[in-house]
Design goal:
Structural class: alpha+beta
Shape: flat
Radius of gyration: 30 Å
Mean pLDDT: 80
Length: about 240
């Protein structure tokens, strides 16, 4: 009987010690977790403050530039400083990419506006074609296989792709505001656009698909080209 009682006491003691050790271990893990949260929060706060400070500096620099060069805001319900602040705020979203077009020697502000819109599509398409061409040229140097793409076909692809991107990109490009100043030859006009990265990617991929079909580039190179376009957008999104 005495032995049974001692066993029960030992069992109770062991359980009590186990609960104490378990609670102590859990408490330590909880403290470490809380410290990690506090540390990460401080890092995020510091990063946000640094980003805000950089954005404020960027805003002030741009406003000084506009003032020094004599720019005024174009047709807008907002003042120039508000328009610029809103523009930078939208750029915080990684889904947006800025695109600035400079138009010169327009006889009227309205004509500058129309030309800027068309130039935005054309310039974006030219860059799209140049990016793909750069990647393909690199592959040409590295690929000596029998499946290397026909240069005549690929040249036709570049031209077709650029035209199709220019047509497709309109839905992804949104004007935010414009500034202008009068010069001896008319107006100088700076237009600030935002490009939706996802919509632009779809426009470029659709243009590539159609251009590849029209120029009959072989399947292996067709797949490579579409991968180049996707990789290009991934790099832009990470910047």
């Amino acid at each position: 009987m005495k032995e049974k009682i001692e066993n029960k006491i030992n069992l109770y003691s062991n359980c009590k010690n186990f609960k104490y050790i378990y609670m102590k271990k859990n408490l330590k893990q909880t403290i470490l977790t809380l410290l990690s949260i506090v540390f990460l929060t401080n890092v995020i706060v510091a990063q946000n403050k640094a980003l805000q400070k950089a954005q404020e500096k960027q805003f002030k620099t741009k406003m000084k530039e506009f003032k020094a060069e004599g720019y005024k805001i174009g047709s807008s319900v907002n003042s120039l400083d508000v328009a610029l602040l809103e523009f930078y705020e939208k750029l915080k979203d990684n889904k947006n990419q800025q695109w600035v077009v400079v138009t010169e020697n327009c006889p009227t502000e309205n004509l500058c506006n129309i030309k800027a819109q068309n130039d935005a599509y054309a310039q974006y398409a030219t860059q799209a074609s140049a990016n793909v061409k750069g990647r393909i040229d690199q592959e040409f140097k590295a690929d000596a296989s029998p499946n290397a793409v026909d240069k005549t076909a690929i040249d036709k692809f570049y031209a077709g792709y650029e035209i199709l991107v220019s047509k497709n990109i309109a839905g992804a490009v949104k004007k935010q505001f414009a500034v202008y100043k009068q010069t001896a030859n008319g107006y100088k006009y700076q237009t600030f656009f935002l490009i939706n990265v996802e919509a632009a990617e779809n426009a470029r991929l659709d243009a590539a698909k159609r251009a590849l079909e029209e120029t009959k580039v072989n399947q292996e190179w067709g797949n490579k080209i579409q991968n180049f376009i996707k990789e290009g957008f991934e790099q832009q999104s990470s910047n």
